[in-house]
Amino acid sequence: MKIIFGRIAVILCLVLGWALPAESQEGNDKLLQELFLKSGINQLTEQLPVIFQGGVDQGFAQDPNLKKLPRDVLQEIRDAAASAYASQKMRNIMLKFMAGRLSDAEVKSVIQWLDSPVGIKSTDLEKKSLAPGWLEEMARFAEEIQKRPSPDARLKLIGELDRATQATAASVEMFINTNLAIATAVILSLPQETRRPLSEIRKELEADRAAIEKTIQEQTRVGMLCTYRTLSDGEIQEYIDFAKSPAGSKFNTVSIAAFQQAMVEGGVDFGRAVANVYENMGKKKAI
Predict the structure, then answer these.
(1) pTM
(2) CA-CA distance, 193 to 260, in Å (whole number)?
């Protein structure tokens, strides 16, 4: 998964509502919109429909039940994924969630970091990691460091940055949510009497969490080594210091929860849409 997930990790949870007065809310929203733009959140949300459609495509290629579906039905499911995780929808959910949980002072502090030389440089590198071809570039980099390993001091810094930004945790949750979305499409394609509860799939994924985390941690840290390879050790330490600061830590925690909520709502909408696709397919067969 992309490195920028370290800022807006995916961990499914229920969210309590907290709204500010209308006047304060408006000012907070404007600051948050600036924060979304400068931090790369906007660019990340643009990738979500593609990520989930890619997951659905993998499900089509691997699951025998999905392979049997008509092409138009498969396309409707792909369209449902794009709609459920639409970028503007995801941003609106996150904005609404974060507005009451980050003060103007905290948002301004994060923006000040993003406007700093290291903040700008780091964010530009993270945005590049969302560009087409980056996964191929990372694969080539991984081969290179197999031959010429990074210094221990660099590896230690990257591990600390991973923990400070919660990058591995973010990627693990994105992996689990993508698989749950695919499982939804698969389960609903089966006859009612043979369907497994989605909760069972979730339990299986949770049981494998440690193994999933170990694998993804290795991938994430290689990705971070690749993404931030032009940053000096001092610049990475400055990034870590920001991530551990009161405002940086609060931003990470709140943005994680905001993305959690967006994924929850997207998942619910996707499940409903897929159910409607299958229901309409059944009606057509009955005619």
Answers:
(1) 0.76
(2) 31
